Amino acid sequence: MVGGGRDAFIGGVHRMAMRLDGKIDLVAGSFSSNAEKSRLSGEDLLLDPSRVYPDYSTMAERELTLPVGERIDFVSIVTPNRTHVPVAKAFLQNGFNVVCDKPLAFNLEEALDLQQIVGKTGKVFALTHNYTGYPMVKEARELVRRGDLGNLLKVVVEYPQGWLINPIDAEGKKQAAWRTNPEQAGASSCVGDIGTHAENLTRYITGLEIDEICAEFTTFVKGRRLEDDANMLVRFKGGAKGVLYASQISVGEENSLSIRVYGTKASLEWHQEDPNDLIVKYGEAPRRTYRRGNSYLSGVAQRFSRIPAGHPEGFIEGFANIYLEAARAIEAEANGQPIPADCDFPTVKDGVEGMLFIATAVKSAKGGAVWTRMSNAR
Amino acid sequence: MVGGGRDAFIGGVHRMAMRLDGKIDLVAGSFSSNAEKSRLSGEDLLLDPSRVYPDYSTMAERELTLPVGERIDFVSIVTPNRTHVPVAKAFLQNGFNVVCDKPLAFNLEEALDLQQIVGKTGKVFALTHNYTGYPMVKEARELVRRGDLGNLLKVVVEYPQGWLINPIDAEGKKQAAWRTNPEQAGASSCVGDIGTHAENLTRYITGLEIDEICAEFTTFVKGRRLEDDANMLVRFKGGAKGVLYASQISVGEENSLSIRVYGTKASLEWHQEDPNDLIVKYGEAPRRTYRRGNSYLSGVAQRFSRIPAGHPEGFIEGFANIYLEAARAIEAEANGQPIPADCDFPTVKDGVEGMLFIATAVKSAKGGAVWTRMSNAR
Amino acid sequence: MVGGGRDAFIGGVHRMAMRLDGKIDLVAGSFSSNAEKSRLSGEDLLLDPSRVYPDYSTMAERELTLPVGERIDFVSIVTPNRTHVPVAKAFLQNGFNVVCDKPLAFNLEEALDLQQIVGKTGKVFALTHNYTGYPMVKEARELVRRGDLGNLLKVVVEYPQGWLINPIDAEGKKQAAWRTNPEQAGASSCVGDIGTHAENLTRYITGLEIDEICAEFTTFVKGRRLEDDANMLVRFKGGAKGVLYASQISVGEENSLSIRVYGTKASLEWHQEDPNDLIVKYGEAPRRTYRRGNSYLSGVAQRFSRIPAGHPEGFIEGFANIYLEAARAIEAEANGQPIPADCDFPTVKDGVEGMLFIATAVKSAKGGAVWTRMSNAR
Amino acid sequence: MVGGGRDAFIGGVHRMAMRLDGKIDLVAGSFSSNAEKSRLSGEDLLLDPSRVYPDYSTMAERELTLPVGERIDFVSIVTPNRTHVPVAKAFLQNGFNVVCDKPLAFNLEEALDLQQIVGKTGKVFALTHNYTGYPMVKEARELVRRGDLGNLLKVVVEYPQGWLINPIDAEGKKQAAWRTNPEQAGASSCVGDIGTHAENLTRYITGLEIDEICAEFTTFVKGRRLEDDANMLVRFKGGAKGVLYASQISVGEENSLSIRVYGTKASLEWHQEDPNDLIVKYGEAPRRTYRRGNSYLSGVAQRFSRIPAGHPEGFIEGFANIYLEAARAIEAEANGQPIPADCDFPTVKDGVEGMLFIATAVKSAKGGAVWTRMSNAR
Questions:
Q1: Closest CA of chain C from A278, distance in Å
Q2: Is the Cβ pair D214, C280 closer than 8 Å?
């Protein structure tokens, strides 16, 4: 692991997600840009001190010197956006597989560059757009794929949070500070941090590709340097329309990602805060609630469930599903086998799409919320 | 009553709303542009045949010839949009008070004209934006007014329906046919019919005034002449932002008007399909659910409740609250007294605002979903 | 109307329910055992003073002296339990139809006596077990009837309220005082007032007959003379089992009547506070939510709906359905026709069953919560 | 681990719960009474074959022969009820700490015997009544403890499941077969398997002690040897009353454990299927929803949360909290320190209470659902 030292949030989530299924052991890490903090974090995690490194370059190099069976199988990158690509490159180029937090990169150029490198090295690259790991999100995709919804007309996807309503970034809260700092986060805060999850979730479930965006960015908290709220109208290729918004200043909202997809035959609705349910609505029939863990679900939804219906699974379990699939691919790669066709995890391609989305939204917003083509943001 | 003959939907709702509290009797009407149908509808309603008129002009004139205590106190107009203003004018100019369904008029010019006439005649004019009649909507306004939410930052208001997913308008279903016919409905179907409720509800609760709109209209059903879906970004005066959408093709949605208002201190959430609850969310305190009929509610919410908490009130009761307040004003007017200051019903001014909103949205949409100022639509 | 004067709760509900559909006019009444209060209540209701009577006997007699087309068609009795039967007898014996609030009588003997009188007079007698008037309760019954649930195994029905947690009866709140006074209410408060609704709802939906009850009564509030909480185990004829409870001291509960019925194939769930939804659960299929006003519902559920899906109907509308059906029967009776076979309202027979249920529960509770057969309570 | 081989359900849950926080490694096991199956299960789990044992006695003995730092710190027992006590005794008597699935024992005598042994050995004994591991259950207990609810009057606790509606036990489904087999499960199926969770949850949150039970057991599925449904009335010491039921034949219910606690000041409500919310209701104030992960919660609820509000935690996380606390006690024990006073996990005492509850319910049911004192079941 690179990043995820003491006080980090997402690093701990990654570790729980890794551990859950007993297939992945954390054995080495560079947990902080501060070498001492890295060392202490390694102690917290009961790691062999010889494999706790002062920086990621050292880690990539030294691990390579270990015998094949002993070195890490992959690296998990959980640093701020700024360093995703440099770290990923260092490991890829030393022959390691990579699992990386989102968004993929600091900007689109970096992302495209990384995509090339991944292609060249042939290594596994998994991006933790974790919300697609939820079984009922997978069920939603199945319903769309098998035509239960008919042709898709409209998508409403929203991701309100309220945790940045106060200037906690200016007051030194680290989680907040880097996310609203353009030197760390890139050109966007709210869209880069959570809007991109909304975009990824939409693409995953519907398969729709965004054609144009009209994005209104607002910075509601004084002194903040990046947007903390973004509302968008979306035109998809093929004629479907969308509303997408993300917010960090919607007081009282916790992590309220939700999506509604409307087709000609039926519509579906999923709420991240109630992730075990998937609601399907019809014009001429009772609404249905599909619930995780039941035998009537599609095979893919069942494959990603661990416990019976009514025993709620949550965020960590969904996140762990990304790791499980990445691990499956990494195992195949390690054995010189092709990656199984049904491996289901976000890749560098998803990451590039996400960066393109961010860049397009930023461009639209800077122009005063004007319609902007995705293809023009490159 | 003018309009609301056999097979009409909203006429029956108005009649139930009128009757509920025992203060209003339906005694006369012109229920259809077809005189025979009007006559039969009058029979259905057990009216004195001498007061069932073949057309609205005859009604306005003849009622005027009756002695003061016997003639109607007001007329209720429940015709398609096309004829709201002509009918209203006929009655106003004969000295009758008016209750009128929304939207106010066929177009903005008519609306402004009517506003002048109402002003000149000094008669009561109530517009049935019925959703503001719900007690918990009134409570929501109180919470905003007394500052519980702090400064308002963002509003998300949505009104999806699914009943027009199939071309039932082209297949002769009357309710649908006039709503999507520009000769009957005006320049907009979806926004005129329901988007305007969303706008009115927003203004009622928040007091915010819209400055600019970016409106994307879509007609998803082939052959339909007006839009059946509209997504908008909104800029309010003072800096708040909004998302507003309305849809008639969101399959499986029934009448799912809902609003979320985000302030600096707290946010609120109300769903028309669950109208007895009002949810308030805080950053640092448990969520609260305010429920209709309880002693802890503000006076205004209590004043508009009829039965105890836990005994659900619904759409008709909310609608009846508009009539109750209009009746209070009409009674005052009849007695030569000033209209009570706390009379709480939508007026011609709300209707003009609504028409301005529709006109602005139409203009924005026609321009390709460009930002359009409310003030430029006049 | 008899009863329902100023300050009464249920009288006002009855009047709204009567008025809603425009088929029933309130034209006469004896609104209080206090003649002056009756007179004033009549004034409030804008009634002809000559038809506002000082007591119910006078009313029954005088109305009889009016010409057939002018006298009342039926009387609505909304007094405390103590006087239901004497009032009903007075009117029945003078040839009037009766609508009566529940429970039917002060005790079982009275109830059986009244049943005989109703039988002899051949008049219509409707009991306002209003919860069976909700369209989705009717849908629930249809699902059971047509076998969607298979054989019924278990029923859980609960009716918690919290309004009597404080001794407001001792403090003079009239609504509370008579309900907990054995001279006014009879042998039971909580079970007589609301437990009997739970029993009636169960019988209406399931058709099951109670065989034995084990009833634990508790009086939690000091000084109260009747139980304010009752928990029961139930054995139905045929082997199904049940849990039934009612409470007036469950703080924070409003009017939370709900029922769950479990069969061999499926189960259903309905909540009075969310009356437009009916949830059906299956072992091997997604849950379904049936919603009022939709075309996929059974004919009977549609017949008792007034407005489209998503426009919530509530308590008053459900209550009005009892009046609508009683009115249909009364109209037939007045016209010398047989009562339509599909007339769907609670009758004196339901009232007797309810009194038997109360008597059985009281007997069980007095014995220390011992199993008691319904057949032994007579 | 003892038990939890291939095809077992609860063994896998225990392993995920152990792993989640990175404090516990599974290093040895006897996974089945079938030695070959145990071996294969060990392989699945990537264990050192030398520490996969053919039976539990061998395991207890051999582990003892390992050096102190290498042998297991505790054993986790996930076998059917029949063998909980023999296995626990074997390990306790060899000086190992124990984590054991519930119910504690095959019968009350065994349980009391085990309690003595635990006392004598001074070892840590944790029982996985996992539902008390949920943070919001801990918050519920805090609310009761600090008096927010006032004096407790009534508890309604229910645990319906539907998975045994068909005779899958007779058809060879192993999970079902042992649970309904009196030789494996003991004198009760439904109450022993899930009713005991309801009892434990009630005691944990409220601190109330059951005085008397009236329990109605039913076996709805033909040929089944133990009850598959149980409804109970409960009298607590001090005068509070309760309703408790459990069911395995409530079709369509998944794992719907829920509890409502009513006090003189407020009531609370928690649903296992929606575990991140705790609802508190008041007579004279809006309802509150306390949500996991928020700063306004009590310290104990925060201590058992891993991720921020709005990122749902589920069953596994709650279960893991039992392991976390047991591990804390075991670590203290290993270090010769006293067990921290705030260690919060179910102990052998809870297990004895649970067995007493089962025995009392069985006795009541056998007597025809007669009131039976807890103290008489010993």
A1: 10
A2: no
Among A260, A257, A29, residue whose Cα is nearest residue A140: A260
Q: Are A148 and A265 in contact (CB under 8 A)?
A: yes
- Exposed/middle/buried for residue D184 (C-beta within 10 Å: 0-12, 13-18, 19+): middle
Tell me the CA distances in angstroms from A106 to A79, B206, C171, one per residue in order. 11, 39, 70
pLDDT for the residue D378 = 66
Which subunits count as partners of chain A given 3+ CB pairs below 8 Å?
B, C, D
- ipTM surpassing 0.90: yes
CB-nearest partner of B287 from D284, D285, D288: D288
- Amino acid of residue D314: G
Query: Which residue from D276, D129, D277, D135 is spatially nearest to D203, judged by alpha carbons?
Result: D129
Are B219 and B174 in contact by the 8 Å Cβ rule? The answer is: no
Give the tens place of pLDDT for each residue, B146-198.
999 999 999 999 999 999 999 999 988 888 899 999 999 999 999 999 999 99
User: How many Cβ atoms are within 10 Å of C274's Cβ, its own excluded?
Assistant: 18
A371/B contact by beta carbon, under 8 A: yes
Q: Which residues from chain C sit within 8 angstroms of residue D264, using beta carbons? A: 165, 251
What's the mean pLDDT in D100-128? Answer: 96
Which backbone phi and psi does A13 adopt, to 5 degrees?
A: -65, -45
C368 interfacial to chain D (CB closer than 8 Å): yes
- Lowest mean per-residue pLDDT among A280-284, B2-6, B292-296, D154-158: B2-6
Q: How many CB atoms lie within 10 A of CB B303?
A: 15
Strand runs (DSSP E) across D120-209, as ranges? 125-127, 152-160
In chain B, residues with a C-beta closer than 8 Å to the C-beta of A256 are none
- Residues paired with C279 in a beta bridge: C269, C289
In chain C, what residues touch B163 (CB-CB under 8 Å)? Answer: 308
Q: Which residues contact B24 (CB under 8 A, 6 or more apart)?
A: B18, B323, B327
Q: Measured between CB atoms, does C323 come within 8 Å of chain A?
A: no
Asked whether A141 and A204 are in contact (CB, 8 A), the reply is yes
Give D 185-244 residues with CB within 8 A of chain B: none
In order of A76, A183, A196, D215, D230, the CA distances from A128 in angstroms are 10, 22, 12, 51, 46
The residue of chain A nearest to residue D258, with distances taken between CA atoms, is: A310
For residue B154, the chain A residues in CB contact (below 8 A) are 229, 247, 249-250
Q: Give the closest residue to B283 by CA, choosing from A313, D309, C115, C103.
A: D309
Among D5, D65, D7, D64, residue whose Cα is nearest residue D29: D5
* Dist CA B62 CA B76 (whole Å): 16
CA–CA separation, B72 vs B24, rounded Å? 10
Asked if C289 and A290 come within 8 Å (Cβ–Cβ), the reply is no
Q: For residue C378, what pLDDT is reported? A: 66
Distance between CA atoms of residues C44 and A307, nearest Å: 63
Separation of alpha carbons C294 and B251, rounded Å: 13
CB pairs under 8 A between B and C: 109
Nearest Cβ partner of A307 from D26, D291, D316?
A: D316
B254 touches chain C (CB under 8 A): yes
Residue of chain B nearest A261, judged by CA positions:
B250
CB-CB contact of A191 with A342 (8 Å): no
A294 in C contact zone (CB under 8 Å): yes
Q: Determine whether D211 is exposed, middle or buried from the number of CB atoms within 10 Å of its CB (0-12, 13-18, 19+).
A: middle
Q: What is the pLDDT of residues A96-112, one digit of tens each?
A: 999 999 999 999 999 99
Asked if D291's CB is within 8 angstroms of B287's CB, the reply is yes
Give the 3-state secondary structure of residue D242: strand
Write out residues 256-275 of A within 8 Å (CB-CB) of B.
Answer: 260, 262-267
